[in-house]
């Protein structure tokens, strides 16, 4: 027995079965190429084309979204600045209105106080006049009560 590796010659038989297999293989390739392989390759190419198109479209949409976000943030900042300016304007207007109301209240309070003081002064003057008019009668009455008899004026 000789080892297989030791033999130097390779024997290949080309008989009719080999030739039949080559013919069948070639026939299958010729028949299956337009029926199976070409449509399958077109499907793969279409899938690749659509995938690339979807990726490109996704990149474009991402860029548009970034631009929209930038515009949105710019608009928000603009609105915030305008709101700040409006808030400061309203604060100033409110402070001015508050000062005006306080001034009017102080003036009204001063007027009420002056009217009250004038009424009190008039009432005091009237009462002093009444007391001055009633003073001789009161003095006689007090003296009469102290000495125990009626005093004439």
Automatic annotation (TrEMBL):
Keywords noted in UniProt: ATP synthesis, Cell membrane, CF(0), Coiled coil, Hydrogen ion transport, Ion transport, Membrane, Transmembrane, Transmembrane helix, Transport
Bilayer-crossing regions: 18-41
Keyword set includes Nucleus: no
Principal cellular location given in the protein's record: membrane
A Gene Ontology cellular-component term: plasma membrane
Localization per Swiss-Prot or TrEMBL: Cell membrane; Endomembrane system
Family: Belongs to the ATPase B chain family.
HAMAP family for the chain: ATP_synth_b_bprime
Subunit structure: F-type ATPases have 2 components, F(1) - the catalytic core - and F(0) - the membrane proton channel. F(1) has five subunits: alpha(3), beta(3), gamma(1), delta(1), epsilon(1). F(0) has three main subunits: a(1), b(2) and c(10-14). The alpha and beta chains form an alternating ring which encloses part of the gamma chain. F(1) is attached to F(0) by a central stalk formed by the gamma and epsilon chains, while a peripheral stalk is formed by the delta and b chains.
Biological function: Component of the F(0) channel, it forms part of the peripheral stalk, linking F(1) to F(0). The b'-subunit is a diverged and duplicated form of b found in plants and photosynthetic bacteria.
Protein name stated in the entry: ATP synthase subunit b
Gene: atpF
């Amino acid at each position: 027995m000789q080892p297989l590796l030791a033999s130097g010659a390779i024997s290949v038989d080309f008989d009719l079965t080999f030739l039949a297999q080559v013919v069948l293989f070639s026939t299958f390739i010729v028949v299956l190429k337009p029926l199976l392989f070409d449509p399958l390759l077109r499907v793969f190419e279409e899938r690749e084309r659509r995938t690339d198109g979807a990726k490109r479209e996704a990149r474009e949409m991402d860029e548009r979204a970034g631009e929209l976000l930038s515009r949105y943030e710019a608009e928000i900042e603009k609105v915030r600045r305008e709101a700040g300016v409006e808030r400061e304007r309203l604060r100033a207007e409110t402070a001015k209105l508050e000062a005006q109301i306080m001034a009017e209240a102080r003036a009204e309070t001063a007027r009420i106080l002056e009217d009250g003081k004038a009424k009190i002064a008039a009432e005091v003057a009237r009462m002093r006049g009444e007391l001055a008019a009633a003073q001789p009668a009161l003095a006689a009455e007090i003296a009469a009560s102290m000495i125990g008899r009626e005093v004439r004026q």
